[in-house]
Amino acid sequence: MFIFISHCKKGMVGNKKLSFGPSVKLPEVPKGESAELMFSEKGDLEWDYKEDGEYGLKWFIPIVLYNHPSVESLPSSGSEMHWVTKAEAGEQLYNLVCGDAIPGDASLRKEIFGKKWKLTRSVTGSYRLDHA
Asked: Who has greater pLDDT, 71 or 10?
């Protein structure tokens, strides 16, 4: 069960469209593997977080997925979805993007939204984000 807490709308550009049903979620990256993605600030998916009664906060981060070890056929333009995570890397990214640091900082915005990222899951299960 999720309890809605917040939306990150500050500085986010988007064209809202009517839609129903849940958004597509990034499949879990297997331990020791990685996926390639870009973070999205445009489109229908919002940056937000929700309280999961069993596990605490989960971050909903809009991405475009380009490569994933468990997904066989992705379009070359990528596939829009949410990375739903309770990982520290997701929380740090959310706080950076939705905090006061990003809206006025064009160079930092370009670093986050203008490049592909490699999401690596260690053999212990933790996630790390690096420029691809």
From this structure: 71
Whether 19 is in a domain gets the answer no
- Is the pTM of the predicted complex or chain greater than 0.85? no
Question: Would 16 be classed as within a structural domain?
Answer: no
Residue 14 domain-assigned? no
User: Would the CA dihedral through 124, 127, 131, 132 be positive or negative?
Assistant: positive
pLDDT at 10 over 70: no
With a CB cutoff of 8 Å and minimum separation 6, the contacts of 108 are: 101, 102
Residue 3 has pLDDT above 50, yes or no: no
Question: How many structural domains are present in the chain?
Answer: 1
Parent domain of 33 = 2-9+26-131
Please choose, from the candidates 61, 84, 64, the residue with its C-alpha nearest in 3D space to the C-alpha of residue 75.
64
Q: Where do we find the tokens 């706080």?
A: 95
E strands, the chain, are: 2-8, 34-39, 47-52, 56-67, 79-85, 117-121, 127-131
